[in-house]
């Protein structure tokens, strides 16, 4: 069992942080990598990014949004409980080097994925400008942690309840108009990554995105996570999860993500019903 040693709720109780004992993963993982967790024997395999790690304590931190049956089951786990399986580190680490000026753009729970990558670019000696966004102030994640690893931090909310009122792309356009940027890293909802990539294409700035297709085995065997990148089929679990944002087929990714919406809704409703009785 992989014991939970710390649990925090964030963003209006819809997002949960778990620090988990997993010493062998904590000793090996790098920014950009993820784990697959199973709550119990019959649980689904759920991929979550390693948002932080502490090799000395032998722990990794994951931050997840409760969106369906399995993440609702995860939400019931308290400190002292554990995950039956945690497999990783999976995926390719982010290629972090000193480039000059790097802009890190995060939306929603994507900010939890972005944080270790932002810290990596800052530690490598880059000037880091970060732009983070959420639907409203209560849903904004990790503002303090992102501020600590950025030279400049811009905050946006869709409803204007905090920071700039509007989308991260509006602030990004302003940054691109006023700075010579060497790399943009964008992580968040698929439409956000699509529109960030469209914008940076106009400015000819290399852009990395981290994709979240449905995953099953996480080892390149099942094909569940296939995505189309530059007209080639890639498996996000072993070839990614990061790809060149200018080459991703975002519409195809959205279509595959929505393929099981009815079944996911039915499973969640049944889980909620069983849990209330
Ligand atoms: C590499 C990777 C890293 C991720 N990191 C994070 C993270 O750090 N924090 C976070 O909140 N979420 C992350 N996700 C997404 C997370 O895995 C899904 O939200 C979760 O699997 C939903 O499970 P569910 O049973 O609760 O919901 P479901 O009812 O099964 O699904 C709800 C929604 O989640 C999507 N989804 C369902 N199963 C998967 C799956 N196995 N993989 C990807 N998407 C799925 C569906 O398209 C659907 O729209 C990551 C996904 C990937 C692929
Ligand atoms: S999850 Fe099976 S091939 Fe990637």
TrEMBL record:
GO molecular function: 2 iron, 2 sulfur cluster binding; ferredoxin-NADP+ reductase activity; flavin adenine dinucleotide binding; metal ion binding
Pfam families: DHODB_Fe-S_bind, NAD_binding_1
Keyword vocabulary terms for this entry: 2Fe-2S, Iron, Iron-sulfur, Metal-binding, Oxidoreductase
Domain of life where this protein originates: Bacteria
Alphabetical list of InterPro entries matching this protein: Cyt_c3_hydrogenase_gsu, Dihydroorotate_DH_Fe-S-bd, FAD-bd_FR_type, FNR_nucleotide-bd, OxRdtase_FAD/NAD-bd, PyrK_electron_transfer, Riboflavin_synthase-like_b-brl
EC number from the UniProt entry: 1.18.1.2
Annotated ranges, domain FAD-binding FR-type: 1-96
The protein's enzyme class: oxidoreductase
Cofactor: [2Fe-2S] cluster
Positions bound to [2Fe-2S] cluster: 222, 225, 237
Note accompanying the cofactor annotation: Binds 1 [2Fe-2S] cluster per subunit.
Signal peptide: none
BP-aspect Gene Ontology terms: pyrimidine nucleotide biosynthetic process
NCBIfam families: PRK06222.1
Name of the featured protein: Ferredoxin--NADP+ reductase
Organism: Desulfosalsimonas propionicica
